[in-house]
Amino acid sequence: MESRFVTELEQLRMNIIEMAALTEGAMERALRAFFERNVDLANQVIQGDHEIDLLEVGVDRYCLRLLALEQPMARDLRFIVGCMRTAVDLERIADQAVNIAERAVFLSNHPPLPSNPPLEQLAETAMDMLHRVIQAFISQSVERARAVCRMDDTADQLNMAVLKGLLDYMVRDAPAIERSVQTIIAARCLERVADQTTNIAESVVFIAQGINIKHHCEG
């Protein structure tokens, strides 16, 4: 019985890793679509979201079954609960990828805005956080998880820089308002991705140490 339970926990871990890989891939394609004005890539992200949704539902059912039948304790219980939380955050990150892809489709049909270094830096930061938190989950590394938390302030600052820059630009160029608003929405999506990767980092710490670090993850 114990051996079977260990196998089931490992299967749960692999399900999360599969979902994480698909989510990371969706974000990579969405950002390429956005910056390269590639509608085909954007549509791939939009059409592929259903697969990630199904995985999230499957993880939820799997976890509930393990909780009901196995009555796990201590770290095993934390691992299952942490996986449930992580799956929810991964699904939300995938939704943000879809939102960015939708902005990419819209903007590809309009003249490009001037280059936006803070937005590019925000995209790089969000993707770096996502990649790092996946590695933290795989290794169950508290140190890696806390490092992701510390990056969230940078994402917030870059999002504000994008917002301020585009608001100033809209004042000078009224015809660019709609395109600028769509770009602001994309930046907000990236800021939300940073928040959700931070949530996953908090789940990693919860699994490994059994402590709740919500709202003070950087400590």
DSSP, total strands: 0
Low-confidence stretches: none
Order of helices and strands: HHHHHHH
Radius of gyration: 19 Å
Describe the global form: elongated
| Helix-and-strand structural type | mainly alpha
Task: Tell me the span between the first and last alpha carbons.
Answer: 39 Å
Percent of residues in beta strands: under 5%
Largest sheet data = none
Portion of residues in helices?
over 70%
Q: With helices defined by DSSP (H or I, 4 residues minimum), what is the helix count?
A: 7
> pLDDT average, as an integer?
95
Sequence-ordered SSE layout with sheet pairings:
Elements: H1 2-36, H2 39-70, H3 74-108, H4 117-139, H5 142-150, H6 152-172, H7 177-209
Observed structural traits:
single chain, 219 residues, mainly alpha, 7 helices
Provide structural commentary.
The mean pLDDT is 95. Helix 1 packs antiparallel against helix 4 and helix 4 packs parallel to helix 7. The longest helix has 35 residues. The chain contains seven helices and no strands.
